[in-house]
Amino acid sequence: MSGYRDESDPGEVYPAARFAVNTMFCPGCRRAFPDPVEQCPACGYSGASAVDKFPFAAPALDRFIDPDNHLSVEDCEKIDRALDELEKEYPQVRFSFCLVDLAEATDLREFGFWMMNASPVRGPVEERLRPWSVLLLVDNAYCRVSVTAGYAIEPFLDEEEWRSLLRLEERYFREREYGAAILRFVKGAAHVLSEAEKRVRWELSGRRRRGKEARW
């Protein structure tokens, strides 16, 4: 059995439509740059570049994209219940889980970036929520996994937290116990989002305090 590989290293998980608001790395040339851009100023890479690299129709970004039925009906029901609880607190966040067999040469992070850009958007509600999407991509063929976040959610999350979640579930992914791995990932994601919300509230509170002090 091939070894598990977490392919969500910082700088190699790319947000949809534009690069992250924090430290950004180009999916094409891997160059880092500090400001949000629609196109890499060094090599010209953009969302359109990813679409050109994978010249076939992307699947709809459904909750479960599992053409080979790696997940059982029971697995999906358990994950659905966990997501229902998570979405009570964060209704704008949408999770998708894609389990496919990819070629070894496929860059998993770039494939996730392409899916975020090329997957069809069905209606205005999905269009509004797409930037808040989180895609967990599993390559069953080579036991690889990565997380790709939409650009609206990316600035609020620490990439190390996503990587930590994947590392915690390494055994389940390695043994291809995908139902358990994804369920545990969702529960961990609820904690990650809660911590991100606390950080944002604390930062906003600090800004308000500094604003009051400046007025004095």
Describe this structure in words.
With 216 residues, the protein is of the alpha/beta class. It has a single domain, classed as Diaminopimelate Epimerase, Chain A, domain 1 (Roll). 44% of the residues lie in helices and 13% in strands. It has 7 helices and 7 strands, in the order E-E-E-H-E-H-E-H-H-E-E-H-H-H. Strands 1-7-6-5-4 form a 5-stranded mixed beta sheet. A two-stranded antiparallel ribbon has the order 2-3. Strand 4 (64-65), helix 2 and strand 5 form a beta-alpha-beta unit. The radius of gyration is 18 Å and the shape is globular. It starts with a strand and ends with a helix. Mean pLDDT is 80; it is low at 9-23.
Indicate the topology.
Blueprint lengths: L4 E2 L17 E2 L6 E2 L13 H7 L10 E2 L7 H17 L4 E7 L7 H11 L5 H6 L3 E7 L4 E6 L9 H10 L1 H5 L3 H38 L1
Parallel strand pairs: 1-7, 4-5, 5-6
Antiparallel strand pairs: 2-3, 6-7
Helix pairs in contact: 1-3, 2-7, 5-7
Annotated CATH topology: Diaminopimelate Epimerase, Chain A, domain 1
Rounded mean pLDDT score: 80
Going by helix content, strand content and strand pairing, the class is alpha/beta
The ordered string of helix (H) and strand (E) elements is: EEEHEHEHHEEHHH
Task: Kindly list the characteristics that best describe this protein.
216 residues, alpha/beta, Diaminopimelate Epimerase, Chain A, domain 1, five-stranded mixed beta sheet, two-stranded antiparallel sheet, 7 strands, globular
In short:
The protein is of the alpha/beta class. The chain has helices spanning 47-53, 73-89, 108-118, 124-129, 159-168, 170-174, 178-215, and strands at 5-6, 24-25, 32-33, 64-65, 94-100, 133-139, 144-149.
